[in-house]
Amino acid sequence: MTRTSRAADPETGAAADPDTLRALEFGAIVERLASLTGFEPSRELASATIPVAHAAHVGLLNDQTDEADRLLDDQAQANIGSARDIRAALDRASRGGRLTPSDLLEIGDTLAATERFAARLKGWNGPHLGEVRATLDPAPELAERIARSVDEGGEILDGASAELASIRKRMRTAQDRVRERLAAMLRSSALAGLIGEPIVTIRDGRYVIPIRVEAKGRVKGIVHDQSASGATLFIEPLGVVDLNNAWTEATLAETAEIERILDELSAAVEARAGSLRDSLAALARADLWLARARLASAMDAVRPAVSTDAVELLSARHPLIGEGVVPIDLRLGDRFGYRALVVTGPNTGGKTVSLKTLGLLALMHQAGLRVPAADGARLPVFTSVMADIGDEQSIAQSLSTFSSHLRNIVRFVADAGPGSLVLLDEVGAGTDPAEGSALAMAVVAHLVDAGAMVAATTHYAELKTFATEHPNVTNAAVEFDVATLRPTYRLTIGLPGKSQAFAIAERLGLPAGILADARARISVEHATMEEALAAIASARDEQTRALEAASSELATAAGERKLAREGVARARTEARAILADAQHAADQLLARAEREVADLRREVTRQRNLGGGRHRPDGEALSALGRQATRAREGLSVTDAAPVGLEPQAGLAPEARVGMWGRSRTLGTAGRIVEISGRTGRVTLETDGARLVIPADDVEVTSEPASGPTPRDSEAEELRRRAAARVSPTLNLQGQRVEEAMESLTAYLDDVLLAGLDAVTIIHGVGTGAIRRAVREALREHPRVRGFRGGRKEEGGEGATVVDL
User: Fold this and answer.
1) The pLDDT of residue 587
2) What is the pLDDT of residues 493-547, one digit of tens each?
3) Which tens digits make up the pLDDT trace of 10-42?
4) Which residue of 140, 336, 338, 660 lies most exposed, with the fewest beta carbons within 10 A?
């Protein structure tokens, strides 16, 4: 009788309880996922990742990952850019609080990142990222208002309000007046010898000058401070008190206006806080999906197909071991005729890693993550994954290792059913071997009868026999190289493993007498089974070697066939080149013959005109020479047809010949065809005394043009000349807002491309990095930018970007 298994954590709907997640090291996978996110909201989502127990939910998570993977295939640089965690600022604004300039700057950066990510999703037809696109709110009016009010350093700009601009103008005027008055006093002869140091400075928000303490009575004014040595007093002369007051009043007015502007911007954020929260949450979801896709790419992982009756993981790799991991094949389920695997073999041979690989990949699949395995992977959606792995001995609870394992087993037996995956490491260990093996067999049999899938490791020989005899249980073995005393970590399903205790002891030098005594003490049945296992393993190894030899021969044959195909292709290519060269030589001969005929005709005509008709040329010879040129031309046409297996020269018009006129489709330049190279696929045009070598497929045959350059050539050259004369190899964007900088950059790139420059420098300064990020994002997406880098020290460092076009 079977029963339905319960979810490992019914309160959360998780497929595994915290103990199982910890035993299978799922937390380490979550940490790797979180490290690939772009900001704190998505990092929190990643850290909260758990495997879920419902098939529809698992399908939804994996569909999200698939859609993010397609976006990265289409746009490899897709990311959330400079988005910030603005939740605290939104909460403060919602409560009527005043935001700081840095809060507003982060909100502005986030809105700009939202707008760029929304642009990436424009026209996207996937349902999940499409829902994200519909939720994103770049709030363009608010973003523009913040950009107009706060600079990259977090200072309020004059353009934030007309009143602020007016106040700051008054401030500067008052400041200049008081400084000028004090500077004049420092230069006056009346104070000669009284000045401690000829500087104008500020104390307590007032402009003052330093006076020697012994001259205090000679300068009427207000003492605001004294130097540390006591030798200097900082005095505000009575003559500048009114000027200082005017400056102070303007400063106070500036502060009040800035606070008003901040309150106004905070209210604008408050009005949009709900929409911005939803937008931020959507951005975080998309970033999490992209992180899942990047993790899958880093692990070379695949999405397994969902199966109801089989686990099939070929070349499965434990994702936390690293480059040295040995792939294993895991098959389990009714499709293969068994629901339980009993894995045996020597210590450190990989038994526990096999269990962890199976359990961890199952959890990753149910958390929306791809699994590191070969294509064709299949996994069920388990309602619960239960793992008892490692030493759970608890001194605090007075529990032995056996008792700790048994408490887990009791819970598994109570909860397991169809849809459960139970992983038991060294089941029945820690007690009397006879009782432990009997208990292990009973537990595995009960779990299998309950409908669960089970994988268990053991050293007990009795469990090997049990797995051989039970219809729903099979053996599996981890391999061990006795010669090197090293495990191979390969897993073989269908055969039990050997503990290799005697072989290891013999290799390590245990006396032969002791080994003989030990062998005599084991049962006849055990010895017979071990001998049979050794024979089967030997036969399997021989079969494996034969298969590898056959595979090697097959690969060699395939390589030879490839070389033969490549040789045929090279021969055809060389034949085309030879034919093209012959055609070229023939074209030159024909052109020379035609020129000679034309010269002869002109000479005959000249002689006739000079002789007044008295001299009669040999007309028959002249006609014969003309017929000879015609026959030569007709004979050459035979070579137009390609030999068997060869195609005509790609792209070049079939009637094109040396001596004809051709025009470049791309450049619009026309000239006489003086050379056609079949070997390189290039054609040489001669125009205005210069030669132009272009691809054959860019040439079209044309009639001989009228003398002089074409209007199109002249206009293009004039445009290039004018652009090159006025464009600079350096663009300075410092002091501009992001939007202005982007407009300047776009126009500048058009100019330098027209001028034919191949490298330029963009100076954007360091600041908060907003313009630098926007510039490099625009360069990354520009189709005519080959690459870019940060400037070297002598080029401006990180305040400049050098662009290759």
Assistant:
1) 72
2) 887 766 667 777 777 788 988 988 887 877 555 555 555 555 555 555 666 666 6
3) 555 688 999 999 999 999 999 999 999 999 999
4) 140
| Residue 649: closest CA among 698, 704, 592, 702 | 698
- Which tokens hold the place of 637? 């046409």
Q: Is 383 helix (H, G, I), strand (E, B) or coil?
A: coil
CA dihedral 274, 278, 280, 284 (to 10 degrees): 160
Contact 60, 87 (CB under 8 A): no
pLDDT per position as a tens digit, 438-465: 999 999 999 999 999 999 998 888 888 8
Q: How far is the CA of 167 from the CAs of 120, 153, 247, 687, in angstroms?
A: 42, 21, 10, 67
Give CA–CA dist 285/287, Å, rounded: 5
| Alpha carbon 170 to chain centroid, angstroms | 52
| More confident position, 595 or 180 | 180
What's the pLDDT at 295?
97
Residue located via tokens 């098959």: 331
Tell me the C-alpha distance between 139 and 111, whole Å.
7
Rg for the chain (alpha carbons), in Å?
43
Judge whether 687 and 699 are in contact, CB under 8 Å.
no
Q: How far is CA 248 from the centre of its chain?
A: 54
pLDDT category at 229 given cuts 50, 70, 90 is confident
**Which of 689, 683, 725 lies closest to 709 in space, CA to CA?**
689
Burial of 306 per CB tally in 10 Å (0-12, 13-18, 19+)? middle
Give 189's DSSP letter. Answer: G
For residue 359, report the phi and psi dihedrals to the nearest 5 degrees: -65, -45
Residue 428 has pLDDT above 90, yes or no: no
C-alpha dihedral sign at 166, 170, 171, 176: positive
Among the ranges given (235-249, 351-365, 397-411, 428-442), the one the predictor scored with the smallest mean pLDDT: 397-411
Q: How far apart (Å, rounded) are the C-alpha atoms in residues 577 and 664?
A: 23
- Distance set, CA 726 to CA 419, 723, 733, 762 (Å): 74, 6, 18, 17
- How many whole angstroms separate alpha carbon 749 and alpha carbon 783? 11
Burial class of residue 610 in the structure, from the number of CB atoms within 10 Å of its CB (0-12 exposed, 13-18 middle, 19+ buried):
exposed
- Bridge partners (DSSP) listed for residue 309: none
Instruction: Note the maximum CA span of the chain.
Output: 138
Answer yes or no: is pLDDT of 282 > 50. yes
Evaluate whether 71 touches 35 at the Cβ level (below 8 Å): no
DSSP-based three-state secondary structure for 333: strand
Q: Report how many helices (DSSP H) and strands (DSSP E) the chain contains, helices first.
A: 22, 23
Show Cβ contacts of residue 228 under 8 Å, excluding neighbours closer than 6 positions.
none
- The candidate with the shortest Cα–Cα distance to 632, out of 686, 660, 600, 595, is 595
Question: In this structure, is the dihedral angle defined by the CA atoms of residues 150, 151, 156 and 159, taken in order, positive or negative?
Answer: negative
Report pLDDT digits (tens) over 310-327.
999 999 999 998 777 889
Report whether 422 contacts 452 (CB < 8 A).
yes
Asked if 775 and 745 touch (Cβ cutoff 8 Å), the reply is yes
In this structure, what are the phi and psi dihedrals at residue 708, rounded to the nearest 5 degrees? 100, 155
CB atoms within 10 A of CB 103: 25
